[in-house]
Amino acid sequence: MEHIDARKGGRFTYTPAHRSNCGPWEPGWSAREHYHEGADEIFYFIDGVCEIGVGKDARKVGAGALVYVPSETPHTLRTVGDRPVHYFLVVAPNRAPTHSFEPFAPDAGLRHEMTVLHADAGVHIPTNDRMRAEFRSHGPGWVSPEGRAPDTLEWFCFVRGNGRVTAGGETVQVSGPFSAVHIPVGDPYRIENTGEGTLLYLWVQVPDAQK
User: Fold this and answer.
1) What pLDDT, on the 0 to 100 scale, is given for residue 151?
2) Which Pfam families match (predicted)?
3) What is the DSSP secondary structure assignment for residue 146, as one 8-state letter?
């Protein structure tokens, strides 16, 4: 298990199946237009304001926003204002080249769409067999049954509340909105709500082997 504080940043994993990052983009940072060939991407924004653009659609998003960008969708990113943008992202699968930049190949079959959602339990995230994601919430005193994903990797990004995650013989305390936990393939785990309010988190699951 890996426990990350998004305020400090860090790379979770980088495998053929996916790559993920968690951390800050500093004020003035930007990414020029690019897309990911055959790979979908989700961004979850923890703090700060980011502008993400797809074609003529440019949106400013902040804490609690989730953006889903399908494969072959050129997009730009830039921080807005004088505060860092703290984020969590997953791209799946992780294919070379990881980024395709202008000029775009005429036969790339490019798309021009993105989905912007806000963190709330039950929100449908339009992912597919490359990646599954959803927001989940549980009340005070909740303890999950022991989970184990034999052929997938899992992430838990805590949006609100306080909890505890136990996996691989290790226990960590987590709290929203800056805690994120990565569970390796096959590790048994348990999540508990240790606070007095609702525990809300983003759950992301990626198959360990992708074609």
Assistant:
1) 86
2) Cupin_2
3) P
- Domain residues for the domain of 198 are 132-207
Residues 6+ apart with CB under 8 A from 211: none
The burial of 82, by beta-carbon neighbours within 10 Å (0-12 exposed, 13-18 middle, 19 or more buried), is given as exposed
Contacts (Cβ under 8 Å, ≥6 apart) of 161? 175, 176, 193, 195, 197, 198, 199, 200
Domain count along the chain: 2
The length of the chain, given as a count of residues: 211
Last residue of a domain, one of 87, 118, 149: 118
What are the pLDDT digits (tens) for 17-75? 788 888 899 999 999 999 998 999 999 999 999 999 998 899 999 999 999 999 999 99
Please state the pTM of the whole predicted model. 0.89
